[in-house]
């Protein structure tokens, strides 16, 4: 199977770090309580920040988070297992869109961690369903509900990796909600039978 894999919030716990540091930034540095919606995954959608506030936050924290975010529990092991099972792994991520420097940092880190196991990598992808169709992806793993909805509506099986506060989605034949890498491995293995 061809498996599309997002990075932030799926392979790396960077989304949680962004949530923590954005709370601290809003409260301590901006001396604010500017929540719009605490269930939003993207920090830009969680706060009523000016563009300059977003830029300052990214300058202070973005590179640090990309370099140091932990892998999600089980991500490394399961991705290696999927590769050993003969699946093709294709990274499809928005990473690099806000700051192109993050691509080189990511590539270096994946190589150092023996995680350069992806057959192809697509960075700066906001409309992931286009790459999924182009690559003929069998199943995509993403944590952003809007991506999951668009990809599943394009007729591509999609795993909504829900390991953080985020909107609920109703499952259907193209959309499955899962909460950890163990469930993901079980689901993909059973699909592949």
Record the strand order, biggest sheet: 3-2-1-4-5-6
Sheet having the most strands? 6 strands, parallel
CATH topology of the largest domain: Rossmann fold
* CATH architecture term of the largest domain: 3-Layer(aba) Sandwich
Fraction in beta strands? 5-15%
Number of domains: 2
3D structure, described in words:
This protein has 193 residues and is an alpha/beta fold. The chain has two domains: 2-13 and 70-191, Rossmann fold (3-Layer(aba) Sandwich); 14-68. Helices cover 46% and strands 13% of the residues. The protein has eight helices and six strands. A six-stranded parallel β-sheet has the order 3-2-1-4-5-6, with helices on both faces. The longest helix has 18 residues, at 51-68.
What is the structure about, briefly put?
The chain has 193 residues and is of the alpha/beta class.
Map the helices and strands:
Elements lengths: L1 E4 L8 H16 L13 H4 L4 H18 L6 H10 L3 E5 L8 H12 L7 E3 L5 H8 L3 E4 L2 H9 L3 E5 L13 E4 L2 H11 L2
Parallel strand pairs: 1-2, 1-4, 2-3, 4-5, 5-6
Brief descriptors of the model:
alpha/beta; 193 residues; 13% strand; Rossmann fold; 46% helix; 2 domains
């Amino acid at each position: 199977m061809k498996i599309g894999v997002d990075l932030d919030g799926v392979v790396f716990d960077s989304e949680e770090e962004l949530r923590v540091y954005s709370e601290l930034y809003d409260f301590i540095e901006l001396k604010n309580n500017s929540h719009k919606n605490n269930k939003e995954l993207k920090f830009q959608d969680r706060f009523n920040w000016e563009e300059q506030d977003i830029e300052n936050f990214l300058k202070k924290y973005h590179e640090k988070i990309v370099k140091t975010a932990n892998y999600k529990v089980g991500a490394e092991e399961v991705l290696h297992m999927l590769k050993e099972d003969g699946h093709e792994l294709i990274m499809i991520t928005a990473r690099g869109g806000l700051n192109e420097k993050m691509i080189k940092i990511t590539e270096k880190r994946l190589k150092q961690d023996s995680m350069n196991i992806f057959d192809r990598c697509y960075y700066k992808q906001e409309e992931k369903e286009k790459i999924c169709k182009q690559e003929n992806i069998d199943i995509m793993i993403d944590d952003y509900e809007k991506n999951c909805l668009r990809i599943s509506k394009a007729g591509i099986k999609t795993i909504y990796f829900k390991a953080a506060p985020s909107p609920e989605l109703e499952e259907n034949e193209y959309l499955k909600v899962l909460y950890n890498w163990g469930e993901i491995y079980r689901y993909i293995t059973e699909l592949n039978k």
